[in-house]
Design a protein that fits this description.
Largest sheet: 7 strands, mixed
Strand content: 25-35%
Radius of gyration: 18 Å
Strand order of the largest sheet: 1-2-3-4-5-8-9
Number of helices: 8
Bound molecules: zinc ion
CATH architecture: 4-Layer Sandwich
CATH superfamily: Ribonuclease Z/Hydroxyacylglutathione hydrolase-like
Length: 299
């Protein structure tokens, strides 16, 4: 397969956004359904059910849209979807609606797994880390992106290695198999300016070592806050999810960061939203309320 040149990427049909010199593509990391209650934590159903379609089983649709960043010097994957290692029981438990198609989507862009330079998991929950590894020819889980450096916060990796009882339900060892042994692991502490355009920063909140990603290029900017902001319905600082390990931290980070990004008219990138990939933030006259002036919609 011939590699498409940059201008051909747009013909792939994948949602995309340009931030200066950085191109962002959203890849299908699998679609699941989860109970809507925990997805809105303390928010009463009478309020959240006005915003999302809820089934008779009380479940709502959850996308897992991994991102590919093409910078002038690097190919970067942010989060990795549910992967293809789930057992039949797990697939039933998490109501998998669409399988992991991340590799097919990459192929549509003419990009192979060994062309990826960096993988940035926002955190280690299975719905973000499932695609970090895949079964090799012997059926053993091994790094999906063989040449890439996988970047974790030290605090997060410590929980991966020694999960407490609650984290263990979502941090599955097979999602990290071979990363240390293969030399693919890069552990950081706090902020890292990864490329001139891409910065990683520690947020905490959802998990102890949860990290966000900021993109700045040619005066434009975007931010990915991972599960601190799983969907457009979580913009209100108090709309947090029950899976947050430290909800008060999530509220504080959202209150501190979101108005700032909105004043700069940054793009906010989404992983779990089923309707939009990103929204361009704007600040209300109260200098607090954040809304979107325009959005990148899903197909
Ligand atoms: Zn998640």
């Amino acid at each position: 397969m011939n590699k498409p040149d940059k201008s051909d990427y747009l013909s792939t049909g994948l949602p995309s956004l340009k931030i200066g010199e950085v191109e962002i593509f959203w890849l299908n990391g699998g679609k699941i359904r989860l109970d809507g209650g925990p997805m809105f934590g303390p928010v009463p159903k009478v309020l959240w059910s006005k915003k999302v379609a809820v089934g008779e089983d009380n479940c709502i649709a959850i996308d897992n849209s991994a991102m590919l960043l093409l910078t002038p010097t690097a190919k970067i994957i942010i989060d990795s979807g549910i992967g293809n290692k789930m057992t039949a029981i797990q697939q039933e438990h998490f109501h998998v609606q669409e399988p992991w198609r991340l590799l097919e989507d990459l192929e549509r862009l003419g990009i192979t797994t060994d062309a990826i330079d960096f993988v940035i998991p926002t955190h280690a929950d299975f719905d973000h880390a499932g695609g970090l590894t895949r079964h090799d020819n012997n059926g053993t889980p091994a790094p999906t992106f063989t040449r890439a450096q996988y970047i974790f916060q030290e605090k997060e990796w410590q929980v991966v290695k020694n999960p407490d009882r609650r984290s263990a339900t979502s941090y599955w060892p097979e999602n990290f198999s071979g990363l240390e042994e293969g030399g693919n692991l890069k552990i950081i502490n706090g902020d890292l300016q990864l490329t001139p355009e891409v910065k990683i920063f520690l947020t905490g909140g959802h998990t102890i070592g949860h990290q966000g990603i900021e993109i700045n290029s040619q005066g434009a900017s975007a931010v990915h806050l991972g599960d601190l902001l799983p969907s457009q319905n979580h913009l209100h600082p108090l709309w947090v999810i029950a899976y947050d390990d430290y909800p008060m931290e999530v509220i504080a980070v959202k209150e501190r960061l979101l108005p700032d990004y909105a004043r700069r008219q940054s793009w906010i990138l989404f992983y779990h939203d089923t309707e939009i990939c990103a929204g361009r933030a704007q600040i209300g006259t109260d200098e607090q309320t954040v809304t979107f002036s325009t959005t990148i919609d899903k197909a």
